[in-house]
Structures are given as structure tokens and as C-alpha cells.
Amino acid sequence: DICGECYLYSNSFRFGRRGGGSAADSDEEEDNESGVDSPIAISSYIENEALIAKASAHVKQAKAMRELTNQRMDLAKSDRESGVPFEESQQTFVGVYAQNLDLPHVGAEQPGETYYYSPKNVYIFGCVDGATEPRQLTAFTYEEETGKKGSNNVSSLVIEYLHVGGLVKYNVDRSLRKGKCLSMIFDNCSGQNKNNNVLRLAAYLVERGYFLEVEVLFYVRGHTKNACDR
User: What is the pTM of this model?
Assistant: First the structure.
């Protein structure tokens, strides 16, 4: 699970720090026979340590978030299998936009002059219930003239999925059954998921009585592979 940022840290350390010094710097270090580290060597050592610390923090954050999201999904699965009442159980789902499709999709076989035309975009928002095994994807598809891929669209589709996916329960008289906790897991895209509208959605679900507690979790950038991608 290595992202572009991980490669930057690795290459900076391997090539920029270890082998990036000039010939003059090397001569100065060789002329220093006093046994005391030169300012250049000390500076290089400090830069290396700072780079290692940043890389280590990045990897630890990604690993910690991965463990937390897996823990939430495992808890939801355990509660469902154990028959824990909805009012006392954990609910977890992962939601993410897939790669855009085009319509019609003929790829390189698109004939004649129409090869140079831009096909219509089709957007797909997928959700996976963390309590299900094997994982089952619920996909919401719509064309570009119907809507965009912004935070409002994400919020609307999340509410729709909560009902379609059975993560919201009603009594016989159609009154809401208040769930204990809902964990919503997204990638790190700020234009779609990591923004004020989606955070306000969590508050809305609590205020309207859907759940006692709602948390929003975001995978660390570059380490966002999730259940919807499988």
C-alpha cells in the first residue's frame, strides 16, 4: 500500500539526501580531519532525520486510519451476526465515486467522425455495507445532465443508500427507530466527501433522530483502497 507521497519520501531520501551533494561539499568534508562533523554533514543528517520523521508519520497515519475503519466494519458485522438490536448496534458503510463511464462506450472502435466527439459522462457512486459478507456493492448511476459530483450529490446519495441498504429502520407505525452509531467511511477527496456539507450531514442525521452518534472517517490520501474497489 504505497502511494505517490511515499515514493516522493523514498526518492528524496535515496537520491536527494544521500547522493545529492556537490563535489565542493565532498572536498570540504574530506579536508575536515579534526574528527568533528562539518556543518554540511550535520545539516545533511538533520534533513535526513526530518524526512524520515515525516515519512514515518505519514505511514503511521495511513495504517492507523486503516485499522480504525476495519475495526468499525468488524464491529458492525459482529453486531449483525450476533443479532444485536438495531438500537444498540454499530452500522458502517463505505461510499466512494467510481471512475466515470461514457455513453455510448465504444472506445477505440468509435467509427468515423464521431471518434472526435465527446461522449456523455455517466457517474457512479458506490456504497458497501460493512456488516455484509461477502461484500455487496450498491451502485447509483446518473448522467451528467442529471447532476454533478459535488458534496450535495454525495449527501443525497448517502441518505438514499441509508434507506435502500437498510441502515435506517422504522417501526410499524413508520416512526424512526434511533440507531446507536453510524460510521460513514469515504476517501480523501475534498470536492466530494471531505467538506462542510458532508460533515453537516452527520449532524443532520443525529438531529433528525436517525442515530445517537454519527462519525465520518476519511482514508489518508494515497491509501484510499477500500471495499468499493474490490
Answer: 0.77
